[in-house]
Write a structure and sequence with these properties.
The chain is α+β, with helices and mostly antiparallel strands and 383 residues long. It has eleven helices and 19 strands. It folds into four domains: 2-44, no CATH class; 55-152, Beta-Lactamase (2-Layer Sandwich); 160-280, P-loop containing nucleotide triphosphate hydrolases (Rossmann fold, 3-Layer(aba) Sandwich); 289-370, Immunoglobulin-like. Helices cover 31% and strands 25% of the residues. InterPro entries: Nucleic_acid_metab_PIN/TRAM, P-loop_NTPase.
Length: 383
């Protein structure tokens, strides 16, 4: 075992094959590559996985929307259809932690070898896996007080024309569908309708992307599903701007950051130009540009080896701020993670800031009233 840990067993096998001019048969891909590099004739045999039906599938039938498995409790399921379902006890048997752990292990192992599986979220005590069209959330201490597995499965996939939609609403969907908000309680069919809209626009010759975490919308193959890039939808939004989709579906907007990104002017600027039939450009601002809707933020000043750092409250993360020194405009910047505005030390902006500011008291940071900004944007879009 000690030799195996250091890779010595593999080396001995390769030495024997080389000395005897033998053919090395292996199902270890890394070993096959090393042996090939050593000039050994290799026959790589891809390991065959025994495809056993996943244990959790026995809890599902055609009417099951979700299954809820928790240690110390009988298995439960929501049966019916969106908007009309009931919680049902599947059997009297009380579930044990060992049984749930075996189900979770089976799911995790399958997700590693299946092309139709993705690990969407992995944190201490919580794991979310998208397996085919099943969304599986596995929680355990310290996140939850006990072991629990929740599995959600869409049982309905509808085309938009299968809904009872008025001519007026269908016209709105078809001709000017900017800014559709779908709201409702869990299980009411929000994601089903969002999927239908995505497929409707895709079938109409439009480029459609989705923002999801986890990625569980039931959409056509031509619709690309994005999730958080490097843990943030803010990073995903930068990619979205480059690919320029005609429509973007945001699924499960929950956090403050999600709303800010959704409302970001960068995602609406093309629509503004088309609707107003003008070109929107960026010009240098001055003190006269400030309005009553701007708010000064308290902040702390610090420096690193590479940047000047202005830190505000984290609740303003993702918003745009203006930096002034003694009422003289210096720069505008997005407030980044941890509520920080970072200005590279070698930049002209940092040099200007340090030259004009005698102390932190000379610097002001303003952020626009977020909700007033949203109302303004809505008025523009209506016009």
């Amino acid at each position: 075992l000690s030799l195996a840990k250091r890779g010595r067993i593999d080396a001995i096998i390769q030495d024997v094959a080389k000395q005897n001019d033998a053919v090395l048969y292996t199902s270890d891909y890394a070993q096959s590559l090393v042996a090939d590099a050593e000039g050994i004739e290799v026959k790589y045999q891809k390991p065959e996985q025994e495809e056993k039906e996943l244990e959790f599938l026995r809890f599902f039938d055609a009417q099951t929307m979700s299954v809820h498995l928790k240690e110390g409790v009988s298995p439960l399921a929501k049966k019916g259809k969106p908007g009309a379902f009931e919680l049902t006890k599947l059997e009297e048997k009380i579930l044990t932690r060992d049984y749930l752990h075996s189900i979770a292990t089976q799911i995790l192992e399958r997700s590693k070898i299946s092309d139709s599986s993705n690990i969407e979220i992995s944190k201490a005590g919580a794991l979310v896996i998208q397996y085919e069209d099943y969304r599986i959330a596995i929680t355990q201490p310290p996140f939850s007080e006990g072991y629990e597995i929740t599995i959600v499965h869409p049982i309905v996939k509808l085309e938009l024309n299968e809904y009872t939609v008025s001519e007026k609403l269908m016209s709105r969907f078809s001709e000017r569908a900017e800014g559709i908000l779908i709201s409702g309680p869990p299980g009411s069919g929000k994601s089903t309708l969002a999927s239908s809209l995505a497929n409707f626009y895709h079938s109409g010759g439009k480029i459609v992307k989705t923002f999801e975490s986890p990625r569980d919308l039931q959409v056509d193959a031509g619709v690309t599903q994005y999730t958080r890039l490097d843990g943030s939808f803010e990073n995903s939004a930068d990619i979205l701007l480059l690919v320029r989709p005609d429509y973007t579906i945001f699924d499960e907007i929950r956090r403050r950051e999600d709303f800010r990104i959704f409302s970001d002017l960068r995602l609406a600027i093309n629509d503004l130009e088309k609707r107003l039939k003008v070109h929107i450009d960026v010009v240098e601002k001055g003190p006269s540009d400030e309005t009553a809707t701007n708010y000064e933020l308290p902040f702390t000043f610090s420096e690193s080896k590479t940047a000047v750092i202005l830190s505000v409250s984290r609740e303003y993360t993702g918003m745009h701020a203006d930096v002034y020194v003694d009422d003289k405009y210096i720069t505008s910047s997005r407030i980044g993670r941890k509520g920080q505005i970072k200005i590279p030390r070698r930049s002209d902006t940092a040099k200007k800031l340090m030259k004009l500011a005698g102390s932190q008291n000379d610097i002001q940071i303003f952020v626009k009233d977020f909700w007033s900004y949203l109302k303004f944007l809505d008025l523009i879009l209506e016009k």
